[in-house]
Amino acid sequence: MQAVAKAAAGTERITSLHYRVTGTVPQWGRLRADASMDTAPLTMGMKLNAGRYGGEQMEIRFVDGAVYIHGDALRTEMLKGASWFTAEQAAWGRDSFDNNSYGLLPRQLEGNPVVQSTMLTASKDVRRIRTETVDGARTTHYRGTVTSEGIRAARGAATDKAARERQIDSLGQFSAMRLEGTLTMDLWVGDDNRTKQFRMRSDTYTSRGGTADEPLEIIDGEPLDMTVTFLDSDEPVTVEAPPSDATADLAELGLGLD
Questions:
Q1: Which of 80, 155, 157, 170 registers the highest number of CB atoms within 10 A of its CB?
Q2: What is the C-alpha radius of gyration for the chain, rounded to an integer number of angstroms?
Q3: What's the pTM value of the predicted model, to 2 decimals?
């Protein structure tokens, strides 16, 4: 637990990150993403291949409260000749109430991976697995389970402000991913006491209804199995809005997103 907490303290000081995501995500199937983010201001750029996009690569950027999307699967005639479309207000990397990707991203990819990587600090059964090499770096592999109740308990037991805020952020990310019951988490920590990789596995839930004609119903979802690898941290990251003459505004096009 001390090693995991030390890794969380080191990792949460990351100001920029280049990372890779692979795995299976509910309602999206197999996916692979390569992304870069910066915390000041909070921006993110991602290239994503997923079953939902028919295997085509989509590029998604969050800049200055707007989301931009580009990809071969977009029908250019609907975009009136533009190669990107944009929508506001959009937000990424926050808690379950503030995120808004207009359905362009799975819920699990709407969260900040730095925050997600610290969830194991709320586990009561962390154990050391072995020493392993991840992306060319020597790491120590840890594994444990996490629940929302465990995160709340860790928040209440926190003795300092930083640890308490970490658990508050973790609870928001846990809720955003709609995890059902227990999350099994693997964490690979490098010799520099920073996270190199983490894996999350859990059943999920979804909902339907919630209208005047159909009451809200919580139903079982599909399993989550997602691995995030930190490739570079605290290196310069630039995520820019596409040129305005290549961008179409979603509101002006009269289109909707799920």
A1: 170
A2: 19
A3: 0.89
